[in-house]
Amino acid sequence: MQPFLGAGLGVMSVRARQFSTTLFEDKEFAGRITGGLEVHVTERLFALIDASVVFPTGNIAGSNYVRLGWGAGYRF
Fold first, then answer.
1. DSSP character for 76?
2. d(CA 45, CA 32)
3. How confident is the model at residue 69 (pLDDT cuts 50, 70, 90)?
4. In a domain, 52, yes or no
């Protein structure tokens, strides 16, 4: 097992619509903190679970959210 942590910056786009009318649309910078755990099944095959918290800025600063994920990978 191997834990991991990470951080990054990006751009977040938000659009609020009601039927075909756009009520609000904006793009702002956002920070992200992530962490998780890799479980090595074999030397090359692994499974992972992770969670990220996203912190937008500007007009969408209150739109923080948490993302949970899982997956598998193969190291060549």
1. -
2. 27
3. very high
4. yes
What's the mean pLDDT in 45-69?
94
Residues in the chain: 76
Give the whole-angstrom CA distance, residue 14 versus residue 48: 28
Q: Which residues pair with 62 in a beta bridge?
A: none
33 in a structural domain: yes
Amino acid, single-letter form, for residue 25 = E
Classify residue 21: in a domain, yes or no: no
Number of domains in the chain: 1
Cβ atoms of 51 and 39 closer than 8 Å: no
Residue 70 lies in a domain: yes
**pTM for this structure?**
0.74
Give residue-wise pLDDT tens across range 7-49: 999 999 988 888 888 888 899 999 999 999 999 999 999 999 9
